[in-house]
Amino acid sequence: MKLKITLLAIFCMMSSSLLAQRGGNVPSSEKMERLKAMKVGVITEKVSLSPDQAKEFWPVYNNYEAEKSRLRANMRNKLRQIGREDVEKAELARQDEIFKMKEQELELEKKYRPKLLEIISATQYSNLLLAEKQFNQILLKELRERRNTRQ
């Protein structure tokens, strides 16, 4: 219980700190650490991890996140590429590569689901998926607000 309260307090401090920054002079590595802490707080709160579960959950989840991050970086790079010669063929090939990467991301989720279900319940896993979605929505909302204040 103390762990949950502590993590919730950290989450609240980090989220308010992140929202207060609005770009500022904070180095991007520090911003990334704040975002990671915020995500940990959201997931911990929504999934209701016990201390024993948390010890086993976070290393597996961090490996999953690292692999997913690499896949998404590859996908972003493919989306940015523009072929100059034979644009139609190059564009179709690029789109096919993106489809393959999306399939790889789905396979990654299928790979890690059983590993996570050894640690957490099916309900907690569903809550994890919801927490990830909610965290992404929080980030998108924050980015939209930043864009609107800059214009």
Pairing-aware structural class of the strands and helices?
mainly alpha
Low-pLDDT residue spans:
1-24
* Number of distinct beta strands: 0
State the helix count. Answer: 5
Domain tally: 2
- Overall mean confidence score, pLDDT: 80
Rg to the nearest angstrom?
Answer: 18 Å
Share in β-strands: under 5%
Assembly type: single chain
Q: What is the end-to-end distance?
A: 44 Å
Question: Would you list the SSEs in sequence order as H and E?
Answer: HHHHH
Structure characterization notes:
- The chain has 151 residues and is mostly helical.
- The protein folds into two domains: 1-48 and 127-151; 50-119.
- The protein is built from five helices and no strands.
- The protein has helices spanning 2-21, 28-47, 51-80, 87-117, 122-150.
- Helix 1 packs antiparallel against helix 2 and helix 3 (51-80) packs antiparallel against helix 4 (87-117).
- It is globular and about 55 Å long.
